[in-house]
Design brief:
Number of strands: 31
CATH superfamily of the largest domain: PK beta-barrel domain-like
Helix content: 10-25%
Low-confidence stretches: none
Number of domains: 4
Number of helices: 12
Oligomer: single chain
Strand content: 25-35%
Structural class: alpha+beta
Mean pLDDT: 93
CATH topology of the largest domain: M1 Pyruvate Kinase, Domain 3
CATH architecture of the largest domain: Beta Barrel
CATH class of the largest domain: Mainly Beta
Distance between the termini: 44 Å
Length: 599
């Protein structure tokens, strides 16, 4: 480990000091080439001489590239220890490290992760700091270290480092003593807090201890609360919102019990167990994945359809709109008959009605009302006295599916308010009978309705509609965590720090096709043979421009956790904690046989 004249010698602390600031490291975000892409990152920090002023958000001359994961008042200064440098030199067999190598602002002697507690306060120079959380795992430290394993190793070896928030601004420089001013309540070590979030074994007692620490950052508080509320088999709820465990693996045959025409372009299909047994209950808002083989097609196609019937009726009802040139919808509308059988995967999805007693806002447009219709049915079945708002927008009665059914459900509930908007009322549509207001339901109209600000909002419809309504709800003071949307088709990707490129429709990868198991991306309508040229399912998806979400790329953060509809996978490397039942971490998995992913 190299040293420079601007850095203090490790191992020297004065009387009353618990450590020494060995090096101050800063750097502004910059573009870095990585695997054929451009990454905007502030992970490259270099030692600087002399005093530096520390303010609420960072250090003079420093910046962060991704404020969603780094920086801000609760993560103003990142700290890493000389002792951990020595450890990694031995563990990795490397000797070329320089201070700032791990992306830290302060390289310190002392303050190890198994000594420092969340909420501890320290004085360095004339500034005062408070420990708020461990490091957030991120692939960019792997770029800086030229070793993609680093995000996982930092967690599994219990050496994450930690963040300070700045309690009192001031000046610091290499050589300053570190004076401990106060101990954090609960005595929760940085290493303990890090393991509590990322590793198996999230005990209730530990989670409650963590949540009693006022200094713990809001993001980590939310993660620990989610872990407290998580269901068995639900994986790491503190890192990823996942579908409840599926009622059965893969696909099973279900019988078409009946087909009902709801409007000119919409039908509902009732699905039953071939033996007459009741089907497992679904959660209000979930969907089914169907595998159908339209006439003349070389392969089956996969489609997701929201459940539109009562969630625990013993049968499933899905509703299908006939799409122009739609292979699956065309087949279901023209060729399917009662008594036929379909391959169906178990109900899945995270767009689920919460069981809390708060108000419920069910907001939809067009045929995409089906998930919230199932929620309305569930509320009616339990005779809920919650405050419920039913807001729906359609063109006219000709395209208003389930109008009578929704009206009957609304009138059966004691505390519901409903408004229906027709953007193009037909000549026989009567205001006050068929609809309440002419025109579209818009975000600006929400302000006129006096909606409850403490409620949970569930929004379905075209993407532009969901974006507008979500913005309108946020403007009314409803928090983002209480605004739930359901995208139809591929969900938006999350690729932190990657420079934006023009969006492309998912496609087969370039080059020679592989000869391994088939990987099917259900939402992207794509089937790709596996090739050993790829290290993971994530790399296959990226080669096909399938929208994906990821951050660590080493099986730690669970950002890439995706629904595994069918098939089995192997892991290399092994994730630090397995995903939820029925889910897969695509960043570190390979197909064992043919797999179907909800991507």
């Amino acid at each position: 480990m190299s040293s420079e004249s601007s850095q203090a010698s490790p191992g020297q602390t004065g009387s009353g000091a618990v450590g020494t600031l060995v090096s101050v490291n800063v750097g502004m975000p910059k573009d870095v080439a990585w695997q054929g892409r451009t990454v905007f990152t502030g992970v490259f920090k270099d030692p600087v001489p002399g005093p530096r002023h520390v303010c609420k958000l960072n250090i003079e001359g420093d910046g962060q590239g991704d404020l969603a994961g780094h920086g801000g008042e609760m993560r103003a200064v990142f700290v890493y220890q000389v002792d951990s440098y020595r450890y990694w030199e031995r563990e990795l067999g490397r000797d070329e490290f320089i201070y700032g190598q791990f992306g830290e602002n302060f390289t310190v002697e002392g303050l190890s992760d198994d000594v420092v507690c969340i909420g501890d306060r320290y004085q360095i120079g004339s500034a005062i700091f408070e420990v708020t959380q461990p490091r957030v795992t991120c692939y960019r430290v792997g770029i800086r270290m030229n070793d993609p394993r680093i995000p996982a190793l930092l967690v599994s070896h219990h050496r994450p480092g930690f963040y300070f928030r700045v309690i009192g601004e001031g000046d610091v420089q290499a050589g300053d003593e570190i004076i401990k001013l106060a101990s954090g309540p609960e005595g929760m070590l940085v290493a303990e807090a890090d393991a509590l979030l990322y590793l198996p074994g999230h005990t209730r007692q530990q989670l409650l201890r963590a949540l009693r620490i006022p200094a713990l950052s809001p993001g980590w508080q939310a993660s620990f609360r989610a872990l407290l509320e998580g269901e068995p088999g639900g994986g790491n709820a503190g890192l990823a919102v996942t579908s409840p465990p599926p009622a059965w693996p893969g696909f099973r045959r279900l019988t078409v019990g009946g087909i009902t025409r709801e409007s000119e372009s919409v039908i509902s299909i009732r699905l039953e167990d071939p033996a007459g047994a009741p089907l497992p209950a679904a959660r209000p808002g979930q969907y089914l994945t169907l595998r159908v083989r339209p006439d003349g097609q070389p392969r089956s196609v996969l489609r997701n359809y929201s459940l539109s019937g009562p969630p625990d009726a013993g049968y499933y009802r899905i509703t299908v709109k006939r799409e122009h040139e739609g292979l699956a919808s065309g087949y279901l509308h023209t060729r399917l008959a009662a008594g036929d059988q379909l391959d169906v995967a178990a109900p899945r999805g995270t767009f689920i009605l919460a069981g809390t007693p708060t108000a419920v806002l069910l907001i939809s447009a067009g045929i995409v009302a089906t998930p919230v219709l199932a929620m309305l049915q569930a509320l009616a079945e339990e005779h809920s006295d919650r405050e419920i708002w039913w807001l729906h927008s359609a063109r006219s009665s000709r395209e208003h599916s389930f109008a009578a059914e929704a009206r009957n459900l609304v009138t059966s509930l004691p505390n519901v308010r409903a408004r229906v908007y027709y953007s193009r009322p037909g000549p026989n549509d009567v205001e006050g009978r068929d609809f309440d207001s002419a025109g579209r339901l818009t975000g600006s109209l929400l302000a006129e309705l006096q909606l409850p600000h403490e409620g949970e909002a569930y929004v379905c419809g075209p993407t532009a509609f969901m974006d507008e309504i979500s913005a309108g709800l946020a403007a009314l003071g409803i928090g983002a965590a209480r605004i739930h949307t359901e995208p139809f088709g591929p969900a938006p990707g999350l690729t932190p720090g990657i420079a934006a490129t023009p969006a492309r429709t998912p496609h087969l990868p370039t080059g020679q096709p592989g000869n391994g198991p088939t990987i099917e991306f259900a939402r992207s309508n794509l089937a790709v043979p596996w090739s050993s040229d790829y290290a993971s399912l994530l790399e296959v998806a990226e080669a096909c421009d399938v929208p994906v979400r990821w951050s660590c790329r080493t099986g730690v953060c669970h950002s890439c956790e995706s629904t595994l509809i069918a098939g089995d996978v192997d892991y290399s490397p092994d994730p630090v904690e397995p995903p939820a039942d029925g889910s897969v971490l695509i960043c570190c998995s390979q197909p064992r046989d043919g797999v179907v992913l909800d991507l």
